[in-house]
């Protein structure tokens, strides 16, 4: 390729880059850029322009924009290699702003990166650890992965490869589904770099390829170009020289869009070496010239050294030592001024051997080649020593990690054993309590059964006694009328009575008494066996009350007693009752009142109906019943042996039967002292009323 074409290739990208900067400057002067646009400038590598555009935001009224501008400023300083300026800018932020957890994480991360690049590894690790702790507190897997990746890079710098690999693998797990493509790319890049250290080129190529894909998604040109160039270097080591040319050319196209002279110099050096391997000297010379051009624009003497080496190699490959001479002389001066470096010396003396050989100085070429081999041996020994040291540190780290893992395992095992012991203790305590409770429960059940059995036995004995007593009383009650019947029948048989009509009357009376007694016993038996059937029917309350008043009045007056009635019933009221049963109750109560009231006495009937039910109260005058005897009046065959006792012919079953009949109709019967001086019996039928609530005028004598 002619020199004019090479100059065009050199000058055209520079011209386009200059035109781009002028265009951006013109846009910046015409209007203030937004933070988003400034970040685009930073991503494209226009750092100075981005810094100058940030100035208006330092005094912005919005504190959030001020803080973001300061973070972008520190990021640009870092990418420019001004790490102390970046640290100073970041150190002022906690004093000027209130940082949330997100911004705290960002602060620790940036401080860690800058300290690491300055070689202050302890400060870097402290900030990385704070960043990891903050990320875990936020429960943010992206930030956790980024923190692990940064710690892996730090331990790689410390040459502690085992720990570095562990952190990078943790980062990969945390970033598995992350959308922070730049962070993911950084993790894969670090893994690839470590694979290169272990000389695992296939694995390194895999990781760098993954990193390049992620970098392209992030859109940051400097990272894309850097990863593409690193991938090309791996490909060169794998001796795929055609692919090296393709991949390096792709990296160069990206690097030409940003001011990256050092990277461009390295890229052209790499592609020049690939062309030399492919035996294309002219192409190698072309890219060597481009490497010289970009290296000359940097202050990096080491980069210039490599550019002169590759330029001289290209000329010597074409057997043109005259053109290689200026580069050889520059390298000779460089080596004389610099301290001895085995790697650089090996490169120099290899080149010198080729140069002297082509100049015909075979003895000098031999001596140079011997020196090159000596330095090569030193480099091999140093590399082996460093590799051994790396392996030793790796083994030490692994052993330390193993001890930590063993200690952690022992701690977890101890905790597990302690938990199991506590669990067993609790289980035995639970079993003991369960057995105690079961014992108490079984004891209680047995005691309850025993007590129930005793109660049933006692009840059974009482029932037997009551049955025996009842049978004796009934036999006694039956004996009297039967004896009278027998006497009158015998008198009639032997014609001992003058008036047969009186005898038949007595016989009918005793038969009626027997029927009444048998009926009472039958109904009580039904009540005991819960076989009593209630048949409620609607009745007019007024008609019912009039009927009771009429019947009771006749019965009372026939016994030479005074009768009075107090009835208060709503108009058109009706009741739901079993009338035959209620008739029997009222009849029994009326008979008791007539039989047990001294003459001249009085009997009063009160009837009320309300929404609560039907109330019927029958009371008489003296004699009364003592409080001790009132509860026993409902006992079967019980008779009061006091002033109310007389030869009445009662069986003692009347009130007991009344109580059973009333309770079968869901009612209540109670005994009180009467205002008239005798006994008051009150019957309440709660479910009898079929009348809605009606306000009824009350009398002075209302119940």
TrEMBL record:
Catalysed reactions, semicolon-separated: ATP + protein L-histidine = ADP + protein N-phospho-L-histidine
Domain Histidine kinase: 473-689
Membrane-crossing segments per the record: 427-447
Chloroplast is among the record's keywords: no
Signal peptide per UniProt: 1-26
Record carries keyword tRNA-binding: no
Pfam families: HATPase_c, HisKA, TPR_12, TPR_8
A Gene Ontology molecular function term of the record: phosphorelay sensor kinase activity
InterPro entries: HATPase_C_sf (IPR036890), HATPase_dom (IPR003594), His_kinase_dom (IPR005467), HisK_dim/P_dom (IPR003661), HisK_dim/P_sf (IPR036097), Sensor_HK_Regulatory (IPR050736), Sig_transdc_His_kin-like_C (IPR004358), TPR-like_helical_dom_sf (IPR011990)
Keywords: Kinase, Membrane, Phosphoprotein, Signal, TPR repeat, Transferase, Transmembrane, Transmembrane helix, Two-component regulatory system
EC number: 2.7.13.3
TPR repeat residues: 185-218
CDD domains given in the database record: HisKA
Name of the protein this chain belongs to: histidine kinase
